[in-house]
Amino acid sequence: MREQEKQIHIHYFALLREERGLKEETVTTGSNTARQLFDELNKKHGFSLGTERLNVAINDEFQPWDTTLESGDAVVFIPPVAGG
Prior knowledge:
Elements: E1 6-12, H1 14-20, E2 24-29, H2 34-45, E3 55-58, E4 61-63, E5 74-78
Parallel strand pairs: 1-5
Antiparallel strand pairs: 1-2, 3-4, 3-5
């Protein structure tokens, strides 16, 4: 059975924005969780950070990586912050 496709709006920050070359985009995906979505995007774009180094926010709230995605969700992958 084919996974239900959904539209997800993604915001990129810091290193991920540089590596992707975009601030944000909307993708159509069959991924069910935030982790699956990141893995799908990572295969396409070759990000240098993995989920163990990132946090994820869905609809403006930090969430676990196994959170189920719904069509229309806004997802932010948050890299570590450096600075002083």
